[in-house]
Specification:
The structure holds two protein chains of two kinds.
Chain A (H helix, E strand, L loop, with lengths): L1 H15 L2 H28 L5 H5 L3 H4 L4 H22 L1 H8 L3 H35 L11 H26 L2 H21 L1 H7 L3 H6 L21 H25 L3
Helix pairs in contact in A: 1-7, 2-5, 2-7, 5-6, 5-8, 5-9, 7-8, 8-9, 8-12, 9-10
Chain B lengths: L1 E10 L2 E11 L3 E6 L6 H8 L7 E6 L10 H4 E4 L11 H11 L4 H10 L15 H13 L5 E5 L7 H16 L3 E6 L2 H7 L2 E6 L2 E7 H8 L2 E6 L5 H13 L3 E4 L5 E4 L3 H10 L6 E6 L2 H9 L87 H5 L2
Parallel strand pairs in B: 3-7, 3-8, 5-6, 6-7
Antiparallel strand pairs in B: 1-2, 1-4, 8-9, 10-12, 10-13, 11-12
Helix pairs in contact in B: 3-4, 4-5
The chains are: A mainly alpha, B alpha/beta.
Chain lengths: ~260, ~400
């Protein structure tokens, strides 16, 4: 156990001593809050011209998380960099010759990064919610309404799970370019296209980001950005599906790290 | 003590290391020599548990690396000087490694001082030169004050002062009773640093011997004998006479004979008896580098060919007077007789430095000036550097 503490301390030194950590996390927070605020402000000014059917299912909470679809890309960048930097720099050889127990090494690296992402993700989620509701004014909601607190905490969890999923993938792919080239189009384009086409929509609902987004919705039966109303699962069900993806990617990452030469 | 038994590693169809068995003992610097791509680094990586051997095993103090309790306190390694996150400063890099094995932070400042990087400890390692990178890598290896040290090409990129420092450092570490295993592709460097040598080529063991033994066995003397050029019959005659007298004769690329096993005066007598004139009879000592290269010949994966530049060459007109004074009498001999007194004249004259004639160009005895082959067809100007590159 003493050994694990030491590896944790070392990973903390690693993560805090490079600038990319600070920048990616800062960008994730700023982009999420900034873009959400912008969208909330527009929504507030256009609210009266919205159709009655839209107003009926308007989800004030979910709107204040609209910026997360872009902000999560910076979270992905953080997850990729924190893992694949070890490989691209060759540091992995020093790390693994110091920690021959590769499972311990992976656990500690992910634990430290996840703790950091959780803190930043929660802070971002709460900030974007309160800023968004402020801008929505009369159309907004409060944290005390049913399910709202769950959605806000869920926003932080969502960001954390996205970063975790990314780290697992990065342990499999190793190269930062490969990881970016796979994950960015996946989350930014492919997931959106599949979710937008009615034929593939049913399957796209089970993609990690689309399933995970459910946790941030309050009004069920409505049609948010991704049309969350017609999902066959609820908010926690969605988060659970996302968690399954995360577990799968981490197991794959562990197996690759364990079996393959470093 | 590092022990390898039947160590083998395949990468797909390629065999990087095959059936390698050796021991690295404490209290001595053991040099690990081999040409590029001979499997040195792969072996080191297997010792450190980074690569899993396809078969066989390697242990440190009786344990495989992955089973070693608190490995960083027992084994220190420099594998790759550039294996550092460029955005992290030197001190934090070492600190993250130190924390892994419960080494206190003040030890980081100690080793930074030992390798002479105390002033740049807070600088990001992105701006480090190769030599500074090597020093940082050595610092990382020394962190845990380990009994077993591995260094992969530690003097790469170091200046002469740095090389001397590394040499003394290794000797010092070995004198303290530690096991020091250093890889290199430079025999001359190892001859000055190591006590024991393990030589591999194409992933297989070629020698496992002490340095003194290697020197006495391999630094045999030989004589270089040159007969008049343009007359191979004389050379053959002398060669036969020398072989008959019990000598070993090899013809070198430039037509000279390399004779061992027959003393110099006897060679002269034999030549006289066979009625062969000699242009050169000189004593030579085979260098360790040569002995090493002979040993690993045919075990090299990457050998260069002569750069013909045929696709680039244009018949360039030599400037007037080029290659004239001091290189024979231009304009008299038929082209192609590049022997002395017969410097090839005309526009295609070989550049003077490639000629073989009076005044004889001064050079180290082991590397004679490159003579153009006798009766060669008019060649494009030969570049001596490409010849040397072999």
């Amino acid at each position: 156990m003493a050994h694990t503490t030491r590896v944790l301390r070392s990973e903390w030194t690693k993560v805090r001593s490079v600038r990319s950590t600070l920048w990616t996390l800062l960008i994730a927070a700023v982009v999420t809050v900034g873009l959400s605020a912008l969208i909330c402000a527009f929504t507030a000014s256009d609210f009266d011209s919205m159709a009655e059917s839209e107003k009926a299912v308007f989800d004030a909470t979910y709107v204040s998380f609209a910026g997360m679809s872009l902000g999560q890309l910076a979270m992905i960048a953080f997850g990729v960099l924190v893992v694949s930097n070890e490989y691209s720099t060759g540091m992995i050889r020093s790390s693994l010759s110091a920690v021959p127990q590769r499972g311990t090494f992976m656990f500690c690296k992910i634990f430290v990064a996840t703790a950091l992402v959780l803190v930043v993700g929660m802070a971002t989620s709460f900030t974007t919610f309160f800023v968004g509701q402020q801008l929505l004014g009369d159309h907004g909601t409060t944290i005390g309404e049913p399910n709202v607190l769950r959605a806000v905490i869920g926003g932080g969890l969502y960001m954390t799970l996205i970063a975790l999923f990314t780290m697992g993938v990065a342990f499999v792919l190793r190269s930062p370019m490969l990881a970016f080239g796979t994950l960015m189009p996946f989350f930014f384009i492919i997931s959106g296209i599949l979710g937008g086409v009615s034929a593939t929509k049913k399957f796209a609902h089970y993609l990690p980001d689309q399933a995970g987004t459910m946790i941030m919705t309050v009004e069920t039966g409505g049609g948010g950005e991704f049309g969350v109303g017609d999902r066959p699962y609820g908010p926690w069900g969605g988060l659970f599906i996302m968690a399954l993806w995360v577990v799968a990617s981490l197991v794959a990452g562990y197996l690759v790290l364990k079996k393959r030469d470093a | 003590m590092i022990e390898a038994y039947g160590l083998t590693k395949h990468y797909g169809a390629k065999t990087a290391v095959y059936n390698l068995s050796f021991q690295v003992r404490p209290g001595a610097v053991t040099g690990f020599l081999g040409p590029n791509g001979s499997g040195k680094s792969t072996t080191m990586r297997m010792i450190l548990g980074l690569d899993t051997p396809s078969s066989g095993q390697v242990t440190i103090g009786g344990h495989t690396f992955r089973q070693l309790p608190n490995a960083p306190r027992q084994v220190g390694a420099l594998l790759d000087a550039k294996a550092v996150h460029g955005g992290r400063n030197a001190r934090n890099h070492l600190l993250s490694l130190a924390q892994l094995s419960g080494i206190p932070a003040r030890r980081v400042d100690e080793v930074l001082g030992v390798v002479g990087l105390q002033d740049v400890g807070r600088k990001r390692s992105k701006g480090f030169s190769l030599g500074m990178g090597q020093r940082l890598g050595i610092a990382a290896a020394l962190l845990g004050d380990p009994q077993v040290l591995l260094f992969d090409e530690p003097v790469n990129g170091l200046d002469p002062e740095g090389i001397l420092w590394v040499r003394n450092l290794m000797k010092g570490l070995a004198a303290e009773g530690r096991t020091v295993f250093v890889s290199s592709h430079l025999m001359s460097e190892m001859a000055q640093t190591a006590d024991h040598l393990i030589v591999i080529g194409r992933g297989q063991l070629m020698a496992d011997t002490s340095v003194t033994e290697f020197i006495t066995r391999n630094s045999v003397g030989f004589a270089r004998v040159r007969t008049p050029e343009g007359d191979p019959a004389q050379r053959e005659k002398l060669s036969a006479a020398l072989t008959e007298a019990g000598g070993q004769v090899r013809t070198e690329d430039d037509g000279a004979l390399r004779v061992s096993g027959v003393p110099l005066p006897r060679i002269s007598d034999l030549a006289h008896g066979a009625d062969v004139r000699l242009w050169e009879l000189s004593p030579h000592q085979a260098s360790l580098e040569e002995a090493y290269m002979r040993m690993t010949q045919g075990a090299e994966d990457y050998r260069s060919t002569v750069d013909q530049r045929s696709g680039l060459q244009e018949p360039v007109m030599a400037p007037p007077g080029y290659g004239a004074p001091g290189y024979g009498a231009p304009g008299h001999a038929p082209p192609g007789h590049g022997a002395w007194g017969y410097a090839p004249p005309g526009p295609y004259a070989a550049p003077p430095q490639a000629g073989w004639g009076p005044p004889p160009p001064a050079g180290p005895p082991a590397a004679p000036p490159v003579a153009p082959p006798a009766a060669a067809p008019v060649p494009p100007p030969a570049d001596p550097h490409t010849e040397d590159a072999r």
